[in-house]
Specification:
Elements (H helix, E strand, L loop, with lengths): L1 H7 L37 H13 L8 H27 L10 H10 L8
Helix pairs in contact: 2-3
Length: about 120
Amino acid sequence: MRTASALLKARIPQNEKTVSFKEILPLRLKNQVSGKTDKGSDVACLQEMAVMFSCLKANEFNERLCPKEVSSFKKCYKVYIDKKAVNKETSSKGILVPGKDLNYKQLNKVLRQFPNETIKN
């Protein structure tokens, strides 16, 4: 019966008018972002690699018995490297592609075009 009493005591949402808002930090963007999060690890062709290794393991790591899986992995990796090179070229030139994720250099370029005005009290 304890669960029934717990269900009856459902939490009621707070009234927005009674909760006061306290601004701890200013509600505006900084004029630049750091590039720390762009250094994440990219895992390319994970599915193809797993299929290739399972085939190699089943055939005692003889590549001649798994030509389809090996070629599929090599093709996927080549496509990945080509895309990475194109992304690096566009980011180094400073080309902004709408609808794509921006790296920190491109984001800083946009933020420099539209800076925040510093408000002094």
